[in-house]
Structure formats: structure tokens, C-alpha cells
Amino acid sequence: MAKRTPIDRLTLEVGKILEEYGDNVQENINEIVSQMSKQGAKAVKSEARGTFGGSGKYASGWTSQVETGRVSAQGTIYNKDVPGLPHLLEHGHANRNGGRTAGRIHIAKVEEQLVKDFESKVISKL
């Protein structure tokens, strides 16, 4: 038989249940963000190797970092060896002679796929 709760304690019991659910959701999201950040760094590293050929300092410098809080989780994928270069390579840059170098899209592809995967994983966990 189900446990009976007096009406005056109903608010407290519902609050406890919602808090437990919120904690569970946050744990799942933290796990997904950590997993997706690592996967994203690996994918960008692979794209960089394919786009620029080789496994030099640029391609091997990709890594990820995750910051989690009580109600938030943020994953950052970045290049630790040459931090300013990804933007220049992705979007192009000016040359010394006044010309312009075209960008080589290699990060945006990975970002689009990560967003889709993240959404589907969160939906499946909830």
C-alpha cells in the first residue's frame, strides 16, 4: 500500500521529489557535456589533420575543458598550443600584400554535429 502524506506536508514532499529530479537531470547533463566535449576535441583534431594535412602543433593541440556548477555545465573545446590560430584559419585573414586568405571550414562542421548529438542525448536521458 502507498505511503499516506498529510495534506500539510504535501508541499514539502513534492519539493523533495522535484529537487531529486533536478539533481538527477543535472548529473546526466554534466556527464553528457563532459562526454561531448571530449568527443568534440577528438573530432576537431581529426578535421584539422584532414584539412591541413599532418599532425603538427595545430592539429595535436586540441583539447577540452568542462566547468560544472550547481545548475550549469559548460564544455569548451580549444587549441592549447596555438590559441589565436583557429579563428584565423576558420574565417580567413588579411595577408601582408593586402590580399585576403580564404577561410577553411573545419570547426563549424564539428560544432553542428555536436549540437545535434547533444540535443538527442539530453532528450533520450530525460
Secondary-structure map:
Layout: H1 10-52, H2 57-60, E1 62-68, E2 73-79, H3 85-91, E3 93-94, E4 100-101, H4 108-125
Antiparallel strand pairs: 1-2, 3-4
Task: Write structural notes for this entry.
This protein has one domain. The two termini are 28 Å apart. The protein contains 4 helices and 4 strands. It is an alpha+beta fold. It has a two-stranded antiparallel ribbon. Helix 1 runs antiparallel to helix 4 (108-125). The protein has helices at residues 10-52, 57-60, 85-91, 108-125, and strands spanning 62-68, 73-79, 93-94, 100-101. Strand 3 (93-94) and strand 4 (100-101) form a beta hairpin.
Strand order of the largest sheet: 1-2
Average pLDDT works out at 89
For the termini, the CA-CA separation is 28 Å
Query: What spatial form do the alpha-carbon principal axes imply?
Result: elongated
SSE string, helices as H and strands as E: HHEEHEEH
Count of discrete domains: 1
Structural class estimated from helices and strands:
alpha+beta
Helix content: 55-70%
What's the Cα radius of gyration? Answer: 22 Å
The number of helical elements comes to: 4
The biggest sheet, with number of strands, parallel, antiparallel or mixed sense and barrel status, is: 2 strands, antiparallel
Secondary structure: number of strands: 4
Q: Unreliable segments (pLDDT under 50, ≥5 consecutive)?
A: none
Strand fraction? 5-15%
